[in-house]
Amino acid sequence: MRRILRRTGGIESRPREAVVVAFASGKGGTGKSFLATNAAIGLHELGRRVVVVDCDFGLANAHLLFGVNPRHTLLHLLDGAVSAAEALLPTPYGPTLLAGGSGVASLAELGARHMQALAGALHWLAGCHDYVLLDCAAGLAPQSMITVLAAQHVVVVTNPEIAALTDAYALIKCLARQPARPSVELVVNRVTSAGLGKATFDRMADVSRRFAGCDIHYLGEVPEDPAVNHRRLGQPPLLSSLPRCPTSQAILSILHNVEGRVRERDGHGTGRLAARPGVEARMMAQIRRW
User: Fold this and answer.
1) Overall domain count for the chain
2) Taking the C-alpha atoms of 93, 99, 101 and 102 in order, what is their torsion angle to the nearest 10 degrees?
3) What region does 67 belong to: left with phi over 0, alpha with psi -120 to 50, or beta?
4) Which of 57, 116, 141, 217 is a plausible cystine mate for 107, CB 3.0–4.6 Å?
5) How many CB atoms lie under 10 A from the CB of residue 164?
6) 266: closest CA among 16, 99, 50?
């Protein structure tokens, strides 16, 4: 009877998975990891079960931003030394972390077998969290794009400067070519005046629509803030230490917009999300194309 109901849609064909959000950028230095880690803390404070997966293979830094020292990293997981559950690391701020490797050259040259192991780990993580946040490597390398395209939502983080915008557009154009692309959202970081982020988005959205055939969505802007510029390694994440500063307030506004996009696109709470391919299937499809 269960098999019949599964085929006819009487019950969900698989358990509901977490929402998978990739934080990506065309170039390094846009504040992508800063935003991903603070967004995770904000979602945790909203009562969501959140895990951050540092997919910046070989140049990981999320553990530094959370102020933790991982015993196990992606290197151990992908080599089969530990399971995803064993590699998970609690942080003092609520979210859990699957740390990446830092200064490990072998992680920059992962093969299909390793990426398949990561796909299986993401499947397990998505089954026991509400949000899986992927802190992806900057740029368009195949390994980075495989992880980006495993997500349902891609948050492209850019700055108003021309080099960052040019590289962000290159990433959006690459996403636009995919047969089944995720929803593409934009955050403009380090804006020097209120409204500059929206004006930057409007120009980027017009170019993306006209020349790449890709509609993108605006999540918000984050101001240039002395509270961020004066941060030092080892200090608590900004959302925990200075929750009322302009940057923290901007991040909370962005999270409100993220959850709105999730409800709008994925039908969260309606059962439609469960009918879509899971994160492992999405990632395996990209690996096969690779």
Assistant:
1) 1
2) -10
3) left
4) 57
5) 23
6) 16
- Cβ neighbours for 199, distance < 8 A, ≥ 6 positions apart: none
Distances (CA, A) of 202 to 145, 187, 220, 277: 25, 12, 12, 31
Q: Rounded to the nearest 5°, which phi and psi values hold at 103?
A: 75, 25
280 is a domain residue: yes
Structure token pair of residue 23: 């934080």
**By C-alpha distance, which of 82, 148, 140, 73 is closest to 107?**
73
How large is the C-alpha radius of gyration of the chain? 18
Positive or negative: CA dihedral 147, 149, 155, 161: positive
CATH code for position 134 = 3.40.50.300
8 A C-beta contact, residue 157 and residue 192: no
Contact present, 25 and 174 (Cβ < 8 Å): no
Task: Give residue-wise pLDDT tens across range 42-70.
Answer: 999 999 999 999 998 878 899 999 999 99
What residue numbers bound the domain in which 24 lies? 20-289
> Is the whole-model pTM more than 0.85?
yes
Place of tokens 């998970």: 88
Question: Whose CA is closest to 171, among 216, 222, 202?
Answer: 216
Tokens coding 284: 């395996």
Alpha-carbon distance of 24 to 148, in angstroms, equals: 7
Q: What is the mean pLDDT of each successive set of 10 residues along the chain, which is 290 residues long? A: 39 69 95 97 97 91 94 92 96 96 70 93 97 96 94 97 96 94 96 97 98 97 89 85 96 97 71 66 92
Q: How far is CA 150 from CA 67, 77, 81, 171, in A?
A: 27, 18, 24, 15
